[in-house]
Recover the amino acids of this structure.
């Protein structure tokens, strides 16, 4: 199966700074890479995803980059705000199974 | 409102007492799955279902059962719960099987926190 590794496990930034979370995966057949945000007491929610035919995708302050050769993808959040504080998960579906990273707890300090 | 509904939100039980966590979605999704979330381990898939009467094991299926008799419902059954099944459980659904060339996102419920003593 797929092995997804995510770093860092915790990340603390000052409001307005950028945050970057990185994930690597093992199976070159994986072709879809979503990122989920989990707020306290809630289930994860999709914030952005990328498919293997593109290298970068942006949605306002959030962007995801993908390097298929190196088998890694990253989440970039610019101009961070306190409401960005949450746990973020990367994922790499493989056939009919879904594999998640171990999560990054992002703390944005006002 | 499109949603995945899990019940109960919190459950405390004792070792060996059978329990069921219900999951229902109103989006007519074919794909449904269960995950457990443990600190430092992320989300691990327990079981998934591609459609009615089609279920298969995820990465951590031991000690769990599922059924998919209707498209909207996908209950998780613990026939003899043990303390190592204390965890936060999530149900999720998606409009297409994840293995297809086009993949669509998972929609998650708000979780069930289970404690087995």
């Amino acid at each position: 199966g797929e092995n997804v590794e995510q770093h860092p496990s915790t990340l603390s930034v000052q409001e307005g700074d950028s945050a970057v979370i990185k994930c690597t995966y093992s199976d070159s057949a994986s072709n879809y890479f979503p990122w989920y945000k989990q707020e306290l007491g809630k289930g994860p929610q999709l914030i952005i995803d990328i498919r293997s035919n593109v290298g970068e995708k942006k949605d306002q302050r959030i962007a995801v980059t993908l390097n298929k050769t190196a088998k890694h993808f990253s989440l970039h959040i610019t101009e961070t705000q306190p409401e960005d504080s949450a746990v973020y998960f990367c994922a790499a579906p493989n056939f009919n199974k879904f594999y998640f990273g171990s999560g990054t707890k992002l703390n944005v300090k006002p | 409102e499109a949603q995945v509904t899990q019940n109960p939100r919190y459950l405390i039980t004792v070792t060996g007492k059978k329990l069921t966590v219900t999951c229902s979605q109103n989006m007519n999704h074919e794909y449904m799955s269960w995950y457990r979330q443990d600190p430092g381990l992320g989300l691990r898939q327990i079981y998934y279902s591609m459609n009615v009467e089609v279920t298969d094991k995820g990465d951590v299926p031991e000690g769990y059962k599922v059924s998919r008799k209707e498209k909207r419902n996908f209950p998780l059954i613990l026939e003899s719960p043990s303390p190592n099944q204390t965890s936060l459980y999530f149900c999720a659904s998606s409009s297409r099987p994840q293995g297809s060339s086009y993949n669509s996102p998972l929609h998650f419920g708000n979780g069930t926190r289970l404690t087995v003593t």
